[in-house]
User: Fold these one by one.
Assistant:
Number 1:
Amino acid sequence: MDNLDYGIIGNCRSAALISKTGSLDWCCLPEFDSSSVFAKLLDEKIGGSFEILVDSGYTVKQRYKKHTAVLITHFSDGENSFEIRDFMPRYRKEGGGYNAPPEVVRYFKYIKGAPRFILHYNPRLEYALGETKTYVKKNFVVSLTQGKKFDTFFLYTSFNKNAVVEGREIELIKDGYVLLGYNEKIFQPTVRKMYTELERTKVYWLNWSSKTPNYKKYNTQIGRSAITLKLLSYDKTGAVLAAATTSLPETIGEVRNWDYRFCWIRDASMVIKVIGDLGHKNVARRYLQFIVDLIPDKDEKLQIMYGINKEKKLTEATLEHLSGYKGSRPVRVGNAAYKQRQNDIYGILMDVIYEQLAKYSTDLENGEELWGITKGIVWIVSNHWKEADKGIWEFRTEDRHFTFSKVLCWVAVDRAIKVARLFRKSRKIEKWTKLEQEIKKDIHENAWNPEVNAFTQSYGSKDLDASVLLMESYGFIHAKDPKFMSTVRAIEKDLSNDGLLYRYKNEDDFGLPSSSFTICTFWFINSLFKIGEEEKAMVHFDRLLSYSNHLGLFSEDIDFKTKRLLGNFPQAYSHLALIECAINFSRKESEEQVLDAMRE
């Protein structure tokens, strides 16, 4: 498989990736950041997978059940056909809360004829570190490993268990199922029970999706992206993951391979803002509680990222025995970036806090705690905004005065002033306004480079950086300000490559990247739209959408030459930016239709 042709299924506890031919190639249980049960994605020989093997006469097509996270893979050779409906159960329990067990259900729907297939079942527990042995028992199949760690995994099925384990051919004459679970079941599953689980899960997603508004344009893409962002949220704590995978490389054969199964404050806050705008306020509320829980001490600085269960230490290790995606080593688990200082996170978090308070001020039970966090953030920003940091792109070497970090320090204070207005704290408004103006003046004086006629990556630099395009969306500068317009054009000239954007082109710790960071291209499209180049923006947007995979999903990067998807997948960043762009285009069309109607 040359592209990331995978669908994601999940239940806000964990997720799994299924290839376009129906192979389960990535799944960590019981939670997102647990060790893998199937990791063919990271090693085709030893990673482990669960494949559906049919003869060459079959064509295989894949789609999502509309408005849900149920993935349907359709197999047909003309005379014989069947479907697999893959899902992870999630639905409301009768007593409140959600049922979301650490399980994958593969429901086989009989359509016609006498279809035959082989199930190649090969779990490799604990990242395939030790040997996994599989045994057929009376009611289930159990796999276990006793390497460095003891672990077990269970399979229940309506098919002959020995035929499944031995890879013998199975003939489908009626609906069947395979249930893969982390825990042994107390009650024996049946086809009927699994069908009920499927229907309940389907109804859950239909209800969730019905809260997403309908838009004039790009409704399908907005809906699929919203579901994908929901799939990357962790219900238990409110954390939002950057992506569902680890170590998918930004460039094949290189070493920019990181574990993204964590909650970056920046990525998560941006996701929450977009999901909140779509009307899904429970996701936003849970995330704010996640933040409240993380800041027990008033003087404690925020880390840039945390584990999904609020872990503060994310030790990075290398899995030497895995060959990596398409041979791209190393495979990493954990992420050392948690130690970095990035001053932009305060502004991004403050923006979300303000948005939520402005929308639901009477509704939020933790208003006082959020006011306490607001004061704490301003205190930290006032003491540290003049310091250099690693910046949004996490340069692992020197610290610099990055423009984006400075702008977001300004955002932190600007939004704190707005929160103070909501709470009628006039003395704070007066004090904080002086700080806000001081930071703004500093940015205009030091980040603007008259030689290149643009705001640059860092103070005193000539290098351009896509992140400065966010100055406008965060309200630092007006879209029609000549300084912003010339920055957009300078970035287009310097960083655009066949319509895709580099994050930056100056040398970093790893040399010049050969792939585009997908979110940067969305930012650029948004900026073109805002400065009035709307038709050009639309052309770029439609072209970028055509680079998604067969299900409309995006990873972190796109290769400049081949346009293949690269980097961790699916990527929250990419999908939130897609939604922002699509909503802007859609609103514009609605406004034009209203104006046309008024003219008539």
Number 2:
Amino acid sequence: MKEFFKFVFASMVGVILSFFAIFILFIIFITVLVSSAGSDKKVEVSANSVMHMSLDYPISERADKNPFSEFNFMGFESKKTLGLKEILAGIQSAKTDENIKGIYLDASSVSAGFATIEEIRNALIDFRKSGKFVLAYSEVYTQGAYYLATAADKIYLNPEGMVDFRGLSSESMFFKGSLDKLGIEAQIIKVGTYKSAVEPFILEKMSEPNRRQVTSFLGSMYDHFLNKISESRKIAKADLFSIADSAKVRDPKDAVSFKMVDGLLYKDQVLDELKKRSGSDKKKDVKSVSIEDYAGKDERESTTSSNRIAVIYANGEIISGEGNDNTMGSERISRAIRKARTDDKIKAVVLRVNSPGGSALASDVMWREVVLTKKVKPVIVSMGDVAASGGYYIACAADSIFAQPNTITGSIGVFGIIPNMQKFFNDKLGITFDGVKTGKYADLGDVSRPLTEDEKLIFQQEVNKTYNTFTKKVADGRKKSQTYIDSIGQGRVWSGTEALNNGLVDRLGDINDAIASAAKKAKLSDYKVVSYPAQVDPFKSFFDNSADKVRVYFAKRELGDNFTYYEQLKSALSISGIQTRIPYNITIR
């Protein structure tokens, strides 16, 4: 028996020591990965190389600091990805790199909003001004990918491939039928004829005002879409409209006959073309470097100038609190703006807004910091795919606002939703409620019963007050009358082009145009660009909310493109408090 316990004890010690050793190795492994995540060292590029661009992943404003990029283990796959910031810097750097002779755009689908694609497309067009080539190839072009591909001097399609070219569409998901089945009533308090964010809860289809505004801004975006393709491909705009409207491109040969592509090639023929255009040896492989490996820091971030321009990335749904790299927390963004304001080395601020809005209170908190900063140094706003409702709220106080023609903006309106779940509890679950209160309104907003008329009036007054505050601040920021802002407000959504015409934005342009404008306003010829807020530490990020990350990973893997519907439903169910948000999620397929 003594020997038995001795053996068991020794085995336990061995197991414990083994686990301890594995744990130490794991910590070392994680530390090495995290330390390497901060490295911006570019790869060595051989002469006569081609930069390979695929962009087959969701493109955010800035790349996540992911220490596990390109790490595959037990079925978990992680791919190195870039944000718009890094993509633009990579293209700009390649433009002046004598070792890079051109860009190979391997395009099938681009997971990005219209304005993001516009910025990348413009960067590729600028790249071609160096005399270098851009060649696009795909087996299947989605509309977003094709729009990006039209920046190339040559577009090729697989002989059995397809070009999807049929026009743009916008679709909203409506929940009323589901709520009715559950016995849940969405009690809506709003201001704005066009404030359609509440419609999914109370209607089964679009209202006529909503249909008018969507027709207007989608038509404006489509007009720009056709104009730019017409310029690049030398095809009459009317012909492009007819091709899409009648779905004339039904066969690869149709794409050639309508001059939408330059030829039908297999991959080996494309590689031969790349060798020829880059001056590579025909008997060897194409010398290439992926943009993910090539892209490093923006050259403007590496200069030693003591003068700085801060670019503050305000991205995602607006909430109170800290938020993260994908959610705009009022505390985090306010702190970043405040830091830029109090730093004497920072001479101007560019606020990059990409947000559908959210909490009205959180929006106001950030607006205040913009106002204070504007008093001491220039503040320029650059709008991304969406800068609407709360996203416009925080932008309106800036000295100048830049948007892309296909940016979604405006939506100056306010709403609140208070669910009445009495029938759900009573009829579906057999649950009833009873209680006491010390005052008439002590249980104001309780979801177990409907609002009284007095309570509805209280909420309506709060929403009216918020809308009045919103329109007053926009009027002051844009130097317009409040009456005029109300006339173009009412929750109406505008494209960037429409917003330029009605005075909600000052110029059409990208983030680099906004930075140049900030430098000019601050009278700077030499400056360094710094980014705020600091991105989430990759080591901390790995361990924080790991359960959520696993859930999202498997949900995306299972649902694919339909993951967007899951996100919309989740966002709708999370709404609380008075909101300034837009309901649209425009996707180009």
Number 3:
Amino acid sequence: MHSTPFNFTSVAPAVTAEIELLAPAKNADIGIEAVNHGADAIYIGGPAFGARASAGNDIRDIERLTRHAHRYGAKVFITLNTILRDDELEDARKMAWAVHEAGADALIVQDMGLLMLDLPPIQLHASTQTDIRTPEKAKFLQDVGFSQMVIARELDLRQIRDIAAVTPNATLEFFIHGALCVAYSGQCYLSHAHTGRSANRGDCSQPCRLPYTVTDAKGGIVAHDSHVLSMKDNNQTANLDTLVDAGIRSFKIEGRYKDMGYVKNITAHYRRQLDEMLERRPELRASSAGKATFNFVPDPDRNFNRESTDYFVTGRKMDIGAFDTPKHAGLFVGHVTKVAADHFEAELDDADTVLNNGDGLTYLDLQKELVGLQANVVARLPGQANRWRIEPNQPMSELKDIRSKPQLHRNRDMQWDRLLERKSAERLIGVWMTLSDVAGGLRLAVSDERGFAAHADALLELQPARDVERGVAMLREHLSKVGGTIFSLTELTIATSQPWFVPASRLNALRREALERLEQARIDQREILPRAMPVEPPAPFPEDTLSYLANVYNQPAHDFYLKHGVKVVEAAYESHEELGEVSLMITKHCVRWSMSLCPKQAKGVTGVQGTVRAEPLVLQNGSEKLTLRFDCKPCEMHVVGKIKKQVINEAMAVPMTFFRTRPAPQRAGH
């Protein structure tokens, strides 16, 4: 009847690194479900100043999310990652303190001016907007107090390794899934120049998704109405192991504007991928506790996507662009076979595919433009396993070129949507229990997979069980009832001197008290992420002159760079001091390369990289004209243009205080 309690700490393999799955949340409810579906950390906007302008959240919701996340040891990071005007700094400082008091674990920051303020003792993470492409920039950010940093999406494995080599005290974070911004983050001013909506302030109008006609220096058309700045979506599923080997520890999913179904599905997909990796690699473990199980099979292709690419991680590729359409075509299902006055028929590729009323269907018209429709009523044709009649929600005459009998895709599956609207995951923490004798009664000791422990005692007069076998079964039955908690029973050890008879009510109360104490111990002893202290003397910035590309929009940010050895600091583009033609976007994507027009791709071209020069191209959308210039040595493209007078005039009409290097212009009549 005696047995030794299971000691999981003695058999656990040596862990050398923790791996974090970092999921987005538009709101607290989505964040809670991301935790339930296996996220180790959540990033979410606070009340203001996040790089998704319409994805803010009340402090009470932040508190609700952190309370749930911390039950599993998961973290909550707050996006305070826009550039700030001087007149916004005090509100930003107050918000930082408010989210800290609500339990947030870290602030994600772009604006270096914040480092000059009285911030709470909360960990700082460098936003993707800080444009971390070089070891020098990464080391600098580590040395000024950033504990985690999102390095550029455009880096390859060698570049990631080079950064990891010089940042031993920082966690490297990398986007593994979602929409790709074509520009280096923080290096796009196109939206602001044309509309006054600044990407650096969370309000990008996404001009990169528009169609452009591309012409060469002689006026010849290279591409007509093509979405040449629109990228496919990021998917690093195949590269997770190599990214870990290169030094990535936090795997980030894009999507703070995305809906609940997207976050559930994509989080579950990568949780499964990472769990499989952790099974193979015992030197790694998840950064939070618990195992998530799902009642659906995650499939990233079912969510909005523009097809997928792993971008530059494994080298430059031709097919990174979503040039035909920036929309979501969906999964291929079959072909249109017949068109009638009020419906059409389709033959599905797979007889097991089932259409539903309300499904979203798409096809390409003869000009290769995506046409979408909603299926109001669908019905399988009698005796035809894979032939369907579909009545759309609009007149057939409005469905352009459907009589050409195009391929049919589905971009919304109502059955799938309904599945994800319900409870779709459960996350439980493994727990070990040991029942033993103590003076005057029994003790139930509990410990979990991360080493947290607690116990509860039941004071009662012990009576031997009349039926030994039944007595043991009763003890096990009632102590094993952990349903309704965050725990799952891994092992129960009965270590009493003999089987005792204990009333079921006393066993249930003992179990509840022990588990409640364990959960409280997890909260009381949870890891508080430490704030890294900047090195002294202040680390020098890698450059001594900063242009508008440094995004300095307030006086403390200017002072920060002076403190770190910079001699000349120009104002941010949003300060409207760059009125002529400048680079409005810098990107690793090259239109010439993607269209096989790069001089280096020409037959017989050899030599040192950088000796070849590419002629500019022109982009045109309506009356908007932009110039593409090619910097061939680093293999980068610049989209060049200038700010509209209307944007300047509208900004001058609103009282604002921000960093300038030149006198403020006077408004008409002043």
Number 4:
Amino acid sequence: MAEGLQVALICWSVMLIGVLRVLFRLMKEMWLKPARIRSVLRKQGIRGPPPSFIAGNVPEMQKIQSSNQKPSDANHVHHNWVPSIFPYLQRWEQLYGPVYVYATGSKQHLYVSDPKLLKELKLQNYMDLGVPRYLSKPFQPLIGDSIIRANGQDFAYQKKVIAPEFFLNKVKGMVCLMEESAVAFIKTWESRVVESEGGVVDIKVDEELKTLSADIISRACFGSSYSQGNQIFAKIAILQEALSNPSLLFGFLNFSLFPTESEKKIKSLRKEVDALLLKLVRDRQKESQSGGTSEKDLLQMILQSAANNSTDKPQQYMHKTDQFILDNCRSIYFAGSETTALTASWTLMLLALHPEWQERVRVEIAEVCGVDDDQLRQCLKDMDKLNKLKTLTMVIQESLRLYGPGVILAREALAKMKLGDFTVPEGVHIWTLIPTLHRDPENWGPDANEFKPERFANGVSEACKYPQAYVPFGHGSRSCIGQTFSMVQLKIVLPLILSKFSFSLSPNYQHSPVYKMLLLPKHGIRLLVRRVQ
């Protein structure tokens, strides 16, 4: 009896110790660590809204967001749409200045919109500053462990493999493919305009430009298998929509024991996308083994890297070659096609609002390339001629300033680091709202909310007081590796479209930018399309 009681006491003691250890760990992660981080920041003069226990500032964020959701005139186009997306960030900036701290649950965020500190952020080593792990984990079904999500040595290795495929010398070799896709695309619009009543067609240009962009990225990066691109992209678009949950930004995940319907849908979509990609990969591998391909595109480089067992390759990729291939293919389809299509769509919307700039771009195209179709197509294959399209470049840069696809710059301090005069503890999440930077009247002037491409007449360095605060492609070592590819694609697609068609806003257009991983038009971008007279 006594021995049984002794055993029971020991069991209860062990269980109690286990429970206490779990409670202490929870207390450390939920209270002690956040309190220590906030204390370090507070001693340096960094203030912010007081957080509540467990939830942090999320209840206040949700309250501000809901109180800000007033009915707006969707038919009136104004470019200061930022308060409707993250009103709490702007309100706190007005209260606490361009650098402040806030919390989502136990996660501590350092909001930074000071241009001088942004310059410091650009200089940080990729080993010290990475993608927030709590943010990237929920998006794993879409981007996997690809370069978008990787940190440290994993990021360095993947950048070494993929970035060279988007250098200018490689992009030059993709120009013909871009032009061929765009010409075929334009012919479908031409036939629709000709067959329409009155020679005018109401087109949802964002949806159709996504198809064009997916075709281009497929042909340029995945070679002869491009016919599968649209099917893959369609699945990825549905997956993106399923993952566009605001709670992910707060770091609140599902803690239920059973998967939700949404999670089941996401898992099923990922399997479908991977099956399509795996077929593409296996077809290419068979071609390579039989000596039937000489293509040196991005897919071939990824395949070669996956098969390579060099000493600089991270250990986890040695036995997960298929996953390495699929993750990077999936993220390139998402990031490479979606962002460029959105930029082209928003640019056409702005030109529809400003027909004088639409005409200025057309005049420049005619002066640089000529008015004949063959002359134009030859001109756009010449990089020197593309660089002479200054007015077009100014319009694209201004479109990226007002409607850049990227909305948030989110980073995590992977180690203790210096940021200007501040010391940032490890684990702090550094947030910057790009549209706010791009509309700062102190940097851009009192007309910061207006479409004025002329501000870029002498380049980005002369467009504003602090050029480092213009970050449509991100900044530093983690800036978008595909920005050269994207800009060249825009400079080929837009001239081909604008030389053939003129645009005005459709009466059915409703202006409602929303954040769903990227800046999307909630109701699409509907434009009236006519042949240029």
